Every structure is written in C-alpha cells, then in structure tokens.
What we know:
Keywords: ATP-binding, Nucleotide-binding. The protein is an alpha/beta fold. The protein contains 17 helices and 8 strands. It has helices spanning about 25-35, 55-70, 85-100, 105-120, 125-130, 150-165, 185-200, 215-220, 225-230, 240-255, 260-270, 275-285, 295-320, 325-335, 350-355, 365-370, 390-395; strands at about 45-50, 70-75, 175-180, 205-210, 230-235, 345, 375, 380-385. The two termini are about 30 Å apart.
Amino acid sequence: MDPIRNPYAPGAGQRPPELAGRDRELEQFDITLERVAAGRPERSMVLSGLRGVGKTVLLNALRSQAVKRAWGTGKIEARPDRSIRVPVAQAVHAAVREVAHRHRDPDRVDQVAGVLKAYALRTTLADRKGLGWVPPLDVPATKGRADSGDLELDLLELFTDVASLAGDLGVGIAVFVDEMQDIEAGELAALCGACHEISQQGAPLVVVGAGLPHLPVALAASRSYSERLFRYVSVDRLPREMADRAWRVPAADEGVEFEQEALDELYRLTDGYPYFVQAYGKVVWDAAVGSPIGVDDVAEAAPLAEAELAIGFFGARYERATPAERDYMTAMADLGADGATGDGPVATAEVARHLDRKPQSLSPARDGLIKKGLVYSGERGSVAFTVPHFGRFLRAR
C-alpha cells in the first residue's frame, strides 16, 4: 500500500480523518453554544478519561465548533509547576482578538484590552518568562479592574468584561483548558468560583476542561458546587461499531476495504482505544499488499505496532519514573495480571503487601507517579494507570 496515502493519524492531539464515536458530544456542544449566546442558562463542560482516548482531539474539535460560530476562543495546557494566570491571559487575549476586529466601538475594545493588561501585569516577569507572549502594548492598563491579586476576583472581572464584549456581537467567549487536573488546588477553586459567578450572571462565556479520570473528584474537592457547575463527559474507548468506522471510512476514501476477520483482530488488539486504533491502522496499512486488507496483514503488522508503542507511547513514560516508582508500577501490573482488575484500580494496601513494605514508606513513590501523570487516585486507598494497557506492557518487559 502507498504510505503517502496512509490516512491514519496516531499523533498526540491530531484529529483522525474520521472522528468516530463523538457525535453526541459535538451535537451537545452546539446546543450549549446556541443557548449561551442567547442568554439562556447552560453549564460548561469537562471531559475526563485515560490517556489515548482522544480528549485533546475532542477538545480541539469543540473549539473548532466555537470558531465556526464566530465565538472568541483561546486554549491553555495546564502544568503542575506553573500558575494559570499568565496562560489564561494569553488565551483570553487570543479570544478577544478574534472578536475585536468585528466590534464597531474601538474605545470599548481598548477598554477591555486595558483590563486584560491589568490582569496580566499582576504576574511577575518570571511567570511570563519563556511563554513568548506579552500583554497588549498599545493600551494602558486599567486601574482597579482585574488587578487585585486575588485570582478568583480578577478572573471574574476579566471574564465579565470579555464576555460583555463578545455579547455585543451576539456571540461568546470559550476558554479551553487541557490537562486541567494539573491546576493547583487553590487556583482550581478560583477558576470554579469565577465560572460559578459568570454562569449566575448569564454572561456568554464557557470554560471547557479536559483531564484524567480523577478530574471530577479534584473539581468537587475544590468547590462543592462543581458537580452542578459542569456537564461531565467520560471519554472512553470506542465501541466496536465506532472502531470499525474509524478504520473503514478513511480507507474507503482511498478505495481500500477491510475483511471482517481483519477488523475482528484489530479490535481485539486495540480494545477500541482511539490512539491504538490509529496506531495499528497506520502500521497495518503500510504492511498490507493491497485491498482488501486481511487478517494476515494484521498479523504481520501487529509486532511492528507493538514495538512502536513500546518505545514511544509506553517506554517514554516508563523512563520518566525513578527505580522506586517503577517497582511500584510493576507491583500494580502484577496485581492486575489475574484479570480480576484488568489493570483497573488496585488497593494501595495490596501494592504494599505485594512489595512487602509498609504503606507509608511507599507514599513518596505513589505521589511521584501521580505528579508525573502515570497513575491516578480516583478514590481514597486505590490507584490505577492513566494509560490503557500499561500493565500489559510492564508484564511483557
């Protein structure tokens, strides 16, 4: 098969040629945009799921929908070692630029830009270093607005003003936050508080977050009303019909078909996880001689796909861990080997027992893995891998 015509896209955050299985979320977000722009009450949205299930792809697709409706949009990726104040300023600046050129009142635009500058200047030069972004230079910073230093109050005032600017045009502002679970707890509470006030005002602004499975728990811990503030969407692996669609539709566009047995084997190997669907699809395409792609082609390509995943998807994450953290993950994998948990959550007490250690002595390793995004704790006393099939990978080492 011609590798140049290969339609599959197993890249980080790359939109596949066929975004299968996400129609409901896309349709619901269209409704959200329409309702918010019309001044009707609606919740923001939070996407959660394991790595490799397509959260970032879906987040970008939702942003594209907002852009098509002429909304102002901006996106940030949260990091555990960085405040969100500057990234939010950068994202809001991008959103304002998208609507400002259509506004008929330049003084109004400058006023909002001045508030944005005042908000951004509450940060230190160290916070802004390396971001490649500076606040608006052609307007003076507004005094007494979004510059208190209290993040929740400043976010509320900033969001209120930029939403009002977009509302003048009959549209809104959408801020998209990837890796939302990495926002520090106090700042996450401030963001939730600002969103809560904005929703009560009926202002046309939404925040759409994406993160690991424990993100809803983190939000609930930050503010008790967070469970009612957002619409929570669990992004999971694709059901069989949707996985087949993700393989078949792009291939059909290139005049290529799959035999049913080949699709059966592909689904067995990938479990329908979107990243694996794309990764195996790409390698199988390159290995196949012609159409239709058969089960023998899948058998030939599977070791190549597994080797590629072992280096790039699994291996890179494994190498980030310390020796003690690797021991902890290996114990988790061993405990999932019997199929009872299927690499799902395991009790931290069982990990300690398996390693013949006291639970307290393993806390640094567990906390380090959580900070690195390799495991998560969805509920007290248990941990699970953030990456599907990671236990299988460790057991194969």
